[in-house]
Amino acid sequence: MDGVSVGPDVAVHLRRARDHMDAHFTEPLTLAGVAAVAGYSPFHFARAFAAAFGTSPMAYLATRRVERAKTLLRTANLTVTEVCHAVGFTSLGTFSARFRTIVGVTPTAYRDEHVRAGGPPVPGCFALAWGQPQPVARSAPGSARSEKPDPGDAS
Hints:
By secondary structure, this protein is an all-alpha fold. The protein is built from eight helices and two strands. A two-stranded parallel sheet has the order 1-2. Helix 1 (8-23) crosses helix 2, helix 2 crosses helix 3 (42-53) and helix 4 (57-75) runs parallel beside helix 7 (107-117). The longest helix has 19 residues, at 57-75.
């Protein structure tokens, strides 16, 4: 992990919680909910996470959300409010304050700076659909897309 040595049994649980935050950062996550993924109490989890990764769980989540917001602001034709909600923040004020703290400029200034330098942004509907996980299509047994041929097929 980063900096502080933790035992392998603890590291597994902390990585599971961090992976959960990475996969579900657009959803409303609470410290108690993420701690439950790791199997810890909220306060023990917060201390162990900070010791292992050098930041609190909620600061890590905010950074992850801001990283995704930066991508959307650079590439998608979305308003700052739409980006705010797309990355999991529920308050535009909190989003703007966190963004400015982490990046150093407001979301609007960041977008304006990068739009001037790049090409046309991607339409918002495509950007939002692109960021969502898609279900894996299951193909019929024995079809060209299946991994194994149908066991009853004598060919």
